[in-house]
Structure prediction request, 211 residues.
Amino acid sequence: MKKTTIFTIFIIIAALISITLMASRSNTDNYFIEYKQGAVEVWKGRFSPLGKEPFIMMPGAQPPNPIKEVYTREEVFPLIAKYFIDKADAVMDVPGLPDFEGMRTYLNKSLSFAITEDLKKDAHIRLNKIDRMVLLYKADIALSKGTISELKTALEYLKRATLLGPDEIESELITRKIASIIARITAPETVSEITPAEQDAPAKEESSKQQ
Prediction:
């Protein structure tokens, strides 16, 4: 009888431990949303049958309506990804030269939570737009200097921009700029300004490749 009782108690304890572990593991898959003082707070379940811990705070975000008692990762992550995309868009709307690094930071954070292909695409489209804007800006700076070497540098910037998926309007603008630069580089008056060192550069480069 004693052995049977001890065995029964052991089975009960093992079952309770197993149930507790399963409940704890299940709780870590739970997310909770609260809305306080104009900010959406996302909480994540702890490794325990009950309890939660702060996961991320999103000031200025609008909560789901109505707020549910519990959320899954598939429900919460897209909300967070969209929040950071919206933050990047808000930076773009600020007057003056945009904070490109700030926008990149928001978009990279968005990619950390973008679990759908549409959200990943939205973030990458914006990242490519930032890179195109930077390249176009650098091209304009090089163009303003007017030297042959700077014109060629501007041309390289523009060619790189064409690889980043410009829309129809941007593509037309880049194409016009490239044509204008090529016309300036090949103009007789421009060619006559090329220094002997610049004339020798292509030959030296070709010789180096052959070696």
